[in-house]
C-alpha cells in the first residue's frame, strides 16, 4: 500500500533527487531567482522554505543542519547573513512561483521561483509594454500631444544643465 507517500519523486532516484534539490536551492539562494519546470519548483519550495526558517536563528547547530542539506558554504553564508535579515519578520512564504508558459521542445510547464523580498529589482526586467485597444484616431491625437510636449520638456531639462556648465566654467578660473 502507498499510504502517506505522496511527494513528487520527479522521475529520479533518491540520491539524484536530493542532489538536484540541493543544487537548485544553492542557485536560488545565490541568484534570488531561477527558471525551472513547475514540478521542480514546487518540490524546491518545500525543500528550501524550512531551511530559510532555520536560518533565522544563527546558531552553530542551525548552520550545520542547513549545510547538511546545501553542501555549499558560500550559499550557507549568504543565507545566514543576507537572506535571514530580510525575512526576519516574515512568518513564512519566502518564495514565489510565477508561471511563464510552456517549454517549446516538450511542452513542460515552465515557471520561475524567486525569493519574495528580492523582487523589487527583478520585477523591472520582466514587465513588458502592454498594448491597449484604442481607435486609430485617439492614438494619433495622443501622439501629436506627446510631440508637442517633448520640445518643452527637453528645453526645461537642458536649462539646468546649461546653468551648471556656466557655474563650473566660472569656478574653474577662480581655482587657478
Instruction: Output the number of helix runs.
Output: 6
Helical percentage? 55-70%
Specify the biggest β-sheet.
3 strands, antiparallel
Alpha-carbon distance between the termini? 91 Å
**Number of DSSP strands?**
3
Q: SS-based structural class?
A: mainly alpha
Chain-averaged pLDDT? 82
The unreliable regions are 152-156
Order of helices and strands: HEHHHEEHH
Shape: globular
Strand ordering within the main sheet: 1-3-2
Beta-strand percentage range: 5-15%
Radius of gyration: 26 Å
Secondary-structure map:
Elements: H1 14-31, E1 33-37, H2 38-55, H3 60-70, H4 73-86, E2 95-102, E3 109-115, H5 123-126, H6 136-175
Antiparallel strand pairs: 1-3, 2-3
Written overview of the protein:
The structure is a single chain. The chain has helices at 14-31, 38-55, 60-70, 73-86, 123-126, 136-175, and strands spanning 33-37, 95-102, 109-115. With 176 residues, the protein is mainly α. It has a three-stranded antiparallel β-sheet with strand order 1-3-2. Strand 2 (95-102) and strand 3 form a beta hairpin.
Brief synopsis:
With 176 residues, the chain is mainly alpha-helical. The chain contains six helices and three strands, in the order αβαααββαα. Helix content is 60%, strand content 11%.
Amino acid at each position: 500500500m502507498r499510504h502517506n507517500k505522496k511527494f513528487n519523486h520527479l522521475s529520479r532516484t533518491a540520491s539524484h533527487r536530493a542532489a538536484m534539490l540541493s543544487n537548485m536551492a544553492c542557485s536560488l539562494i545565490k541568484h534570488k531567482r531561477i527558471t525551472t519546470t513547475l514540478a521542480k519548483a514546487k518540490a524546491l519550495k518545500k525543500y528550501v522554505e524550512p531551511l530559510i526558517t532555520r536560518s533565522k536563528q544563527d546558531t552553530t547547530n542551525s548552520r550545520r543542519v542547513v549545510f547538511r542539506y546545501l553542501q555549499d558554504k558560500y550559499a550557507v553564508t549568504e543565507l545566514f547573513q543576507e537572506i535571514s535579515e530580510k525575512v526576519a519578520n516574515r512568518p513564512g512564504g519566502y518564495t514565489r512561483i510565477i508561471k511563464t508558459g510552456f517549454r517549446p521542445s516538450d511542452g513542460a510547464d515552465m515557471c520561475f521561483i524567486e525569493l519574495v523580498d528580492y523582487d523589487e529589482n527583478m520585477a523591472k526586467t520582466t514587465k513588458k509594454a502592454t498594448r491597449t485597444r484604442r481607435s486609430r484616431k485617439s492614438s494619433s491625437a495622443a501622439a501629436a500631444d506627446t510631440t508637442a510636449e517633448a520640445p518643452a520638456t527637453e528645453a526645461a531639462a537642458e536649462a539646468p544643465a546649461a546653468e551648471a556648465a556656466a557655474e563650473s566654467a566660472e569656478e574653474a578660473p577662480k581655482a587657478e
